[in-house]
Amino acid sequence: MTLEKYFPYFDKELLKTGVTRQLLLEEYYIKHPDGFKLSQFKYWYNEWTKEVSPMMLHPQGGR
Q: How many separate domains does the chain show?
């Protein structure tokens, strides 16, 4: 399983109190000891969130 397939799960888990990226990365390492390290994990997760996060556009003065 690739790292990207975990991102929807990570996204959902990060909404919970006390859950951090570091905790999720440690969970990922249990299954994939040779997987991505923290800096690459953060980079690819941030790239993924840019793709899936909806952007709200308001017409000028419409807010």
A: 1
Residue 59 lies in a domain: no
CB 61 within 8 A of CB 45: no
**Dihedral over alpha carbons 3, 6, 10, 13 (to 10 degrees):** -150
Global model pTM greater than 0.70: no
What residue numbers bound the domain in which 21 lies? 3-51
pLDDT digits (tens, 9 = 90+) for 25-59: 899 999 888 888 888 888 998 888 887 665 555 56
